[in-house]
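Quick one: structure for this chain?
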Amino acid sequence: MSDGIILQLAVGRAHEALLDLSEPRARAWAQRWGLDYRTQRCRLCADRHFYWDKIALIQCALQVRSYRYLVYLDADTVVERLDVDPRSAVALPAAPIGMVRHAAPIGGMQIVHRNAGAIYVRVCPQVPAFFDAVWNDADCFDPFGWHDQAAINDVASRPEFDGLVGVLPDRWNSTYRTNEAPDAVVSAWHGASLDDRLRLMCGAVARLRLSEEAAPAA
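Got it. Here's what it folds into:
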């Protein structure tokens, strides 16, 4: 029985096209390390913005008692390093929930925030309560239309969850024109136009395929 799972979702044709590119490597990453893998391509909570489906999907996975680790990756991500154990992002002594900090240029300001495009979790008793609190925080202050991401950042700042959400190195969510890391484990294209995401992800997947085909057999 697996001790963890990698989750992805996409809603609508444009995002499903991204997931078609992302899924094979995320699935291979899960298989490499003995983790389960699940994609979600239909709505889980139709009464909210589809961004919230991410939280519902995570909550569902947290109900599986055997899971000690959970990774969520947006559809606009590509796993670069299949040889790196995804669980190592939140291995002790790291905080149970790990996210990369981004600075988004909005209105002439740099808005520093925990980016929810890649979330790494080591399950502990506080984790389900954290995501329940995020779900219940749908009416939080959200001037940038971030939805679940706004709630995650709000809840992570509460005293009762102090120390639960840690900041990961950029390599775990290395994002185009934001925090590109030379040693990326997961690359991402959050914030780019859908056309640019599709084009750049196609290039990344092709590059990785050629590199791995050229590598000598182990």
